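To: structure desk
From: M.T.
Subject: fold request, one chain
Message: Could you run this one when you get a chance? Sequence is below, nothing fancy, just the single chain.
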Amino acid sequence: MSVHEQIGDIVAQLAASSTSRAPAVTDDPLDELFERLRDSDDQSSRAEAEDLIWALWCAHEDEAARNLLNYAIGSLSRNEHQEAERLLDELVLGWPDWSEAWNKRATLYFLCERFVESMQDISRALALEPRHFGAMAGFGQICLQIGDEHSALVAFECALNANPNLDAVRDAAEALRLRLAPKLH
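Reply: Done. Structure tokens follow.
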């Protein structure tokens, strides 16, 4: 699948789930945190909700899975891409229903400029957790890298709908809105 076909598929996936960003799992404990993230007037409460969401996304009941993710994150931080890929491949094979495993491998592929593979993993992460604002923002960054500003704006707006507290994403979206706005002569 080409880069542009993959972009079209993810944009369609985002559009299809934009009205109801319910996760694949029912009775999700994250629901209250997302509500607080979107609706709280208190900035520290919103920041705490975001931190707890990330903590829950990175958590897993299986200690081996948690350890692999931590080792992979360490490898990524040290730019040990081959080792990170080995660990992340093991994660997505062993725990294919863990959205954060797919998101972290998407991040690795992005860093290696393997955009089609990154988008495939983003798509899987979003199928498992449609509110994954990190995956959405990452997709927007890929779109910017390949020059598809319209799709980047869609991704950034979806990320902001899930988490309106992403200042850098908001700034990028605003810059794109200004650049892409029709100009009257």
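Reply (cont.): The chain has a mean pLDDT of 91. Let me know if you need anything else for the meeting.
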